Amino acid sequence: MGTGIKTMLPCEKACHDKLGKSVVAKVKISRGTVLTLDMLTVKVTEPMGVAAEDIFQLVGKTVKEDMEEDDSVLPEVVEGYCKKRKC
């Protein structure tokens, strides 16, 4: 039954905004580094950064600023990252 497509219901949005997972740095990353999957992980974090489901879009992109371990990966810190797959 149903469409098989998962969508977020309006009543789930507040919880997702507070507890949704996003990509964080697994290790310290220096400015100018090209990201690899082993440098990244997914956690519940503040501030919310790149969505967990977009982690593979970050691989091969360059970091514009130094990042510490457990820092949220924010879209504006990654050169060439396109939010919501709209490039």
From TrEMBL:
Molecular function (Gene Ontology), one example: N-acylneuraminate-9-phosphate synthase activity
Cell compartments where the protein resides: Secreted
Segments forming domain AFP-like: 22-81
InterPro entries: AFP_Neu5c_C_sf (IPR036732), Antifreeze_III (IPR006013), PseI-like (IPR051690), SAF (IPR013974), SAF_AFP_Neu5Ac (IPR006190), SAF_PseI/NeuA/NeuB (IPR057736)
CC annotations in GO: extracellular region
Presence of the UniProt keyword Secreted in the record: yes
Keyword Secreted belongs to the record: yes
Highest taxon of the lineage: Eukaryota
Signal peptide from the UniProt entry: none
Entry keywords, A to Z: Antifreeze protein, Secreted
Major place of residence: secreted
Function according to Swiss-Prot or TrEMBL: Lowers the blood freezing point. Contributes to protect fish blood from freezing at subzero sea water temperatures. Binds to nascent ice crystals and prevents further growth. Contributes to protect fish blood from freezing at subzero sea water temperatures. Lowers the blood freezing point. Binds to nascent ice crystals and prevents further growth.
Similarity field: Belongs to the type-III AFP family.
Protein name: Ice-structuring protein
